[in-house]
Amino acid sequence: MINLILLGLPGAGKGTASERIVDKYHIAHISTGDMFREAMANETPVGLEAKSYIDKGNLVPDEVTAKLVEERLQQPDTEKGFILDGFPRTTVQAELLEGITKRLNKPLTNVIAIDVDEDVLIKRLSARYMCKNCGATYNKISNPTKVEGTCDRCGGHEFYQREDDKPEVVKNRLEVNEKMNTPLRDFYEKKGILATVDGEQKPEEVFAAIDKILSKD
Ligand SMILES: [Zn+2]
């Protein structure tokens, strides 16, 4: 059984790693965002409770999110294990999760932090740019135009960057996330289940490092 949380800042490669883990180990990928959308669409009691907060523009309280997680972790597809995505984000949520996993007798087996230096993340996250003429999206690192300075789709030569993708904005977003991420890391380090992998390697190397940790159990 693999009951896992991945920690890491935006751009660290949690999404890619999650996909590979799910492919190999056939565990349930539990995304809080998906869970909310589903529960609200199905109008379950907890879904409706969450919706009443969202409709008013309020944050969903931790207790409501926790109820949703507890329901989800009782679904049969979590038999072999699960990977939690988007929860916990704070140590308060981590405490709530601990209560849930105890009640369900499904303790966390691994918490893996994917570490990437902030400067590298800023480079990765601010590499996105778009064509001024047709709006095609490119990425300087992972998906550049075939001919430098020429849009593949329309042949345009003028490009721009969205406000959200500018380095200063990205840096800000990372700092906000880091403030939440650090206490969580400490929390799980104290519990003795935190492992770290170097996220500056190629995605397949990151996965190999994670795989090594997971297959030890
Ligand atoms: Zn274009």
In terms of topology, how is this protein built?
Layout: E1 2-7, H1 14-25, E2 28-31, H2 32-41, H3 45-55, H4 62-72, E3 81-85, H5 91-103, E4 110-115, H6 118-125, E5 128-131, E6 137-139, E7 159-160, H7 167-191, E8 194-198, H8 203-214
Parallel strand pairs: 1-3, 1-4, 2-3, 4-8
Antiparallel strand pairs: 5-6, 5-7
The chain binds zinc ion (ZN).
Question: What's the quick description here?
Answer:
With 217 residues, the protein is α/β, with parallel strands linked by helices.
Fold and architecture overview:
This protein has 217 residues and is an alpha/beta fold. 47% of the residues lie in helices and 16% in strands. It has a single domain (2-117, 181-216), classed as Rossmann fold (3-Layer(aba) Sandwich), CATH 3.40.50. The protein has helices spanning 14-25, 32-41, 45-55, 62-72, 91-103, 118-125, 167-191, 203-214, and strands spanning 2-7, 28-31, 81-85, 110-115, 128-131, 137-139, 159-160, 194-198. The strands form two sheets. It has a five-stranded parallel beta sheet with strand order 2-3-1-4-8, sandwiched between helices. The protein has a three-stranded antiparallel beta sheet with strand order 6-5-7, with no helix packed on it. α3 runs antiparallel to α4. It is globular. Pathway: Purine metabolism; AMP biosynthesis via salvage pathway; AMP from ADP: step 1/1. Keywords: ATP-binding, Cytoplasm, Kinase, Metal-binding, Nucleotide biosynthesis, Nucleotide-binding, Transferase, Zinc. Monomer.
